[in-house]
């Protein structure tokens, strides 16, 4: 990873300088961590089994509680024919096999971004292989970060090269990809809002089996009380979440599997015929349009599937595959099979078949565990929603709201107060307004299937551009999964008026917010880039404004990663003073989950060395958390001193090479000098070596003294204080802008910037 000093005079470098191999102060540390593995990477079997157990509690709460409401949502008007149960059960079984198992567990999980999953992770992964982001802040040094892990660019397949060039050259393609990403994120946020409502409401409704005097209004208000508690404790975090939740969810899976097996044996073991997919065909033949509409309920059996991918960062692929195929699928499948067997005898109980099918002695234990499982499912989705929004924030796609890290052990555990309040309020309103799981399910299914579809489209790009799979496999993936998801989506859209409109309204609001913020963010970046001050004008700029140096260290924050930001000339014009040590500071988020601390800072010198002015880029992954100011300043100063020492050492090597070259040049070559004895030649060469060694020693001693003096100077200035300077820019639409642009920039963006907790910070 090479560093370049921004030359104030703009002159080229000498050949000797160019011939030297040069590395910055981070290179040695970077080599030590290259190839390091994450929590999401491969491990031994004991560790993998341990992670598989933990994953049960974190990523399967949502899909594991879907048996509470799937059948009641599929048959809202009752069961017309008993054989319809075989068709619906067959649909449920093969939907579980095709979407979560085949698509996600065995394909999508491998498209993780250094262990992280989700729509933003896929977008970031694609942006490393093709320049699809609308802010041109890529640096060559970024690709040398050990965790960047990018291969040679598509040189092996013409198709991949062609596709890459089309993506990079098409503004429309970039906008479509960004829109897909924020659409998927908005639907996950909708999922996080609806999961608590439908899970808690369906779990609480079971109490009416033992207390029939309670009406639906009472059930709703009990659910609201639990939701209030759930959203109120979010600020406490979920540290050690895997150890706490895994036993509860494991007990839940044992209960539903055991109850399913009991119902299968006692009521109708013949429902196992549903493994024959021919019953699906017969079901659609009998029911026609009604069968197609019922798919909106069937799809609820795979709610929470995206969570397997989004929460992959805490586990590894093998652990998720083991826990899904060994625990989740058998337990959930047995639960659906058992309910179908029960409904073959008691079809009139389809509205609440889960609780009615529980054997008497197991009711209360199952009811209590169901409440806990519903809370855990909600907690998992909320944690995932917060983590996804924090990634969106780091990529400039969401206003800079306050992000609180609630765990010192699990870095992905974050809490966003404003978002928590809005999601909690929305979840409670939905519960009160819709009242039943069937109505909420109509909205819930749209969130689920839309997220599936977004992942399918982004995965197709990954297969073409990064995996470079054969076009037949790519088409097979896209056609098979895309068509299945399209059929489900068309069914759910038929219930648009019955509640399906809710996630679209929610998504439109959130997408408008994210698109507005990102649009202005990009426009502002381009404006500053167009008005950048060349670094070779630094000396002239300081002299022109008669700038004096004051004690301390100054950090001027800017989003630009090169040059002098336009706010600096305005700053020294109003206040003609600059700190003794001054850094132009950029916080840059790379399209990777993590940057190791040893590779965090990238320095360049701005202007002559005596100015002691530097450009510094602090690089973070989208899952990294920013340090506290004191800790950040300590890391920064340590790396700055290392950089200065390397700079002086480089200058020393350069001087030694020049001295050695000039010394050798002074000696006549063998053809022109007079002939002497061998001993004379030897003595002459020894004299040259002695002179060179003497000069090198003096240069080294001087360089070491200079480095120590600079370090001591930095320490003294740090003791005098570190000042953080943040320029606030007022953004407004031009007078000739359209009405839409004026509304977006002057009203929506301004409202977000002024009213969110940290919206004013750079």
UniProtKB/TrEMBL annotation:
Membrane-crossing residue ranges in chain numbering: 85-111, 175-198, 218-236, 243-265, 291-310, 322-342, 362-389, 419-437, 443-466, 471-489, 501-520
Compartments it resides in: Membrane
GO CC entries: membrane
Residue segments, region Disordered: 655-679
Keyword Lipid biosynthesis found: no
Domain named K+ potassium transporter integral membrane: residues: 51-539
An example Gene Ontology molecular-function term: potassium ion transmembrane transporter activity
A Pfam family matched in the record: K_trans
Superkingdom of source: Eukaryota
Function: Potassium transporter.
Family per record: Belongs to the HAK/KUP transporter (TC 2.A.72.3) family.
Stated name of the protein: Potassium transporter
